[in-house]
Amino acid sequence: xxxxxxxxxxxxxxxxxxxAVIGAGASGILSGIKLREAGIADVVIYEKADRPGGTWRExxxxxxxxxVPSHVxxxxxxxxxxxxxxxxxxxxxxxxxxxxxRKYGLDEVIRYDREVVxxxxxxxxxxxxxxxxxxxxxDVVIAAxxxxxxxxxxxxxxxxxxxxxxxHSARWDDSTVLDGKRVGIIGNGSTxxxxxxxxxxxxxxxxxxxxxxxxxxxxxxxxxxxxxxxRFRDDRELCQHLYRELNKSFITNFSHAVVDAESEAIAMVxxxxxxxxxxKVADPELKAKLTPDYRxxxxxxxxxxxxxxxxxxxxxxxxxxxxxxxxATGVRTRDGRLHPLDVLVLAxxxxxxxxxxxxxxxGRDGIRLDDAWAESNRTYLSIxxxxxxxxxxxxxxxxxxxxxxxxxxxxxxxxxxxxLIEVLRDGRARQVAARADATERFFxxxxxxxKGTIWASGCKSWYIDKSGVPASWPWDYDRFESMMATxxxxxxxxx
Length: 495
What we know:
Blueprint: E1 19-22, H1 26-37, E2 43-46, H2 55-58, H3 90-103, E3 110-111, E4 116-121, E5 126-130, E6 135-138, E7 140-143, E8 165-168, E9 182-186, H4 190-199, E10 205-209, E11 216-218, H5 226-234, H6 236-258, H7 264-280, H8 284-289, E12 302-304, H9 307-311, E13 316-319, E14 323-327, E15 330-333, E16 338-340, E17 343-346, E18 360-362, H10 369-372, E19 391-393, H11 406-425, E20 432-434, H12 436-450, H13 477-483, E21 492-494
Helix pairs in contact: 1-11, 5-6, 6-7
C-alpha cells in the first residue's frame, strides 16, 4: 500500500492525485472509467466482495428484474444491443457491468475482498484502513457505496427457531430447493412481488405475508427479437435514439409525477393501477386486501406483470393477518393459525439510509460522519459534507433514488465531482468541501420542497428518513441537471 507522501506534479504541471473509490457497483465502475479517461492514473477501487456488480451481485433471487427500461439502465456511452427484454433480468445487468470492467481493464485497479472499515483525514490526505488491517492513503475518496446493499432483517419473535431454510432475498441461497416445497415470503414490495410471480406454481404452496398493500403498475415486458438486436448492433445511433426516447418518456411519465403530488401525471398512474387491479382481480374480498389506503407512488411503485394472476392460483395464498411469531415449522399469525413452511424468504428490504456506514469516516478536527449525521444525513447536493474535504459521494443522501435511473444519476453526479477534482489537480486548492451555510441552505430548501412530493402524502416507506423527511430529490429532472451542471465554488471551502 502507498505511504502518505506528498502528491507530485505531472509532466503537464497538474497535481498528481491518488483517488480511492469505495465500491465496485455501477457507480464505482463508472468512476474508474471516467477517472482514467481524464488522465488520472493513480486510481484504486476497493470492493468488499469477490467480484463487481453491487446491487446486481448481491441480489440474484428468482424473478429479479429492473423496473427501469434496459436501454436506459446502462451507461450513456456504452449501449448494449443484446438486452433480451424491455426490462432486463438481473443477471443480464450483472453481466453488463462485468463486461464493462473487462472492457476498460478495471480488474487491474479493483481490489476485491477489501472492505474499507475506516477513512480518516490526517490534515493533508485520507488514511484508508481495510478489513485485512492494511492502510492506504489517498488525496480524494469517492464513496460509491450505493443504497440497496445493507439487508434489513425484521424483528419477529422466534425467527431464529425456524428449522427450514431461511434467508434474506439479498442473501439468496441457490442450494435451496423450491420446487414442491412450502414457501413463505415476508414482504410484498417489488422484491416480494417478483419472487411470488416467479415461484408461484413451482412451490407446492406459497404464502405471501403482506403487511401493507402495494400499488402495482401493469407493465408488459416484451422480448427483443434477434432481428431487433441485430439492428441495434449494426446501428449505434439507433441504440442512442432509443436511450433518449425511453429516458424522455420515463422522465415525463414518472419522474415529474412523483415530485408533484397534485400533478395530472401521478393521478394517471393511480388510475392505471386501479384499473389493473379491477381488471385482474374479481373477488371482492381479495381485491379489498390488495387495495392500498395511501396515494400511488407514496411507497416505491411496484412495476410488474403477472402478480395478481399468481396470487389467484389455488396453491398460492395472500396472508394479511399480522405475524405473531416464527416457530420451528412455520409462521404463526395473530389469529392463532400456523402456516407450515419448508422455506422462509425475508423480502424485507434494506437499511436505505446507511450509505457508506458502517465504515467509520472521520473528517477535519476529528469530526465523525456518524456525529455529523446524527439528526439527518445532511449533504450539499448529495455530494459533499462540510468538514470532510476531498470526500465525495455518488448516489448519496437525497439523491434522486425514487425518480430517475440511478446510473444516469451517477453519471451526472460524477461529472460534477470531476469538476471539483479539477480544482485540486490544477492547484486552485488542496482541499475542497461544502461550506456549512451552503449545506444548511440546500437542506432547508430541499425539506420545504419535499412537502409537495408524493412521498410526503401520508404513508410509511423506506424513502422517509429518521427525521421524517423523504430522502429523495424533490425537484424535477431539469432542475437536477441544471444544479449539477457546474459547481458554484462560492458554496465550497477551498483551502
